[in-house]
Design a protein that fits this description.
alpha+beta; 2 domains; PH-domain like; 160 residues; 3 helices; two-stranded antiparallel ribbon; rod-shaped; phosphatidylinositol-4,5-bisphosphate binding
């Protein structure tokens, strides 16, 4: 199920996958509220390395790929904007695409909006077709009633 209620707790968990293993091991975990700074290290270079500064800790991270780092930053930025009311972390040395316009989250939102608009248009068109069908049904009903009345009159006249 999907809800718009804020989670009671949001956390950032660092995991590691060891060579030859398909599972992940939890290394460290922090509450989202403890995050103070996200450092992309070099906005002009695609690299998987980045640093996270928490209230009482500094931690170096390496994503699987630079692309995964970008996705993680986008999700993290969106999550912070949505769930942290004050003391939002600072994002430094990050590529502009992470913070703005063409993020995967905006693209996803645009896709959902587009799908909703298409569904709404389809419903409107269906509603119009149903409306026309109801009008036609009403016309046919009136025509059938008129036919029945005429047939009754003819039968009444014929029986005389």
């Amino acid at each position: 199920s999907v809800t718009n209620k804020k989670p009671a707790q949001a956390s950032i968990t660092k995991v590691k996958q060891f060579e030859g293993s398909t599972s992940f091991v939890r290394r460290t975990q922090w509450m989202l509220e403890q995050l103070r700074q996200v450092n992309g290290i070099d906005p002009n270079r695609d690299s998987p390395e980045f640093d996270l500064l928490f209230e009482n800790a500094f931690d170096q991270w390496v994503a699987s790929t630079a692309s995964e780092k970008c996705t993680f930053f986008q999700v993290l930025h969106h999550t912070c904007q949505r769930y942290l009311t004050d003391k939002k972390p600072e994002f430094i040395n990050c590529q502009s695409k992470i913070m703005g316009g063409n993020s995967i989250l905006h693209s996803a939102a645009d896709s959902v909006t587009s799908a909703v608009q298409k569904a709404s248009q389809a419903l409107n068109e269906r509603g119009e077709r149903l409306g026309r069908a109801e009008e036609k049904t009403e016309e046919l009903k009136n025509s059938a009633q008129q036919f029945a009345e005429t047939a009754h009159k003819v039968r009444f006249w014929w029986d005389k």
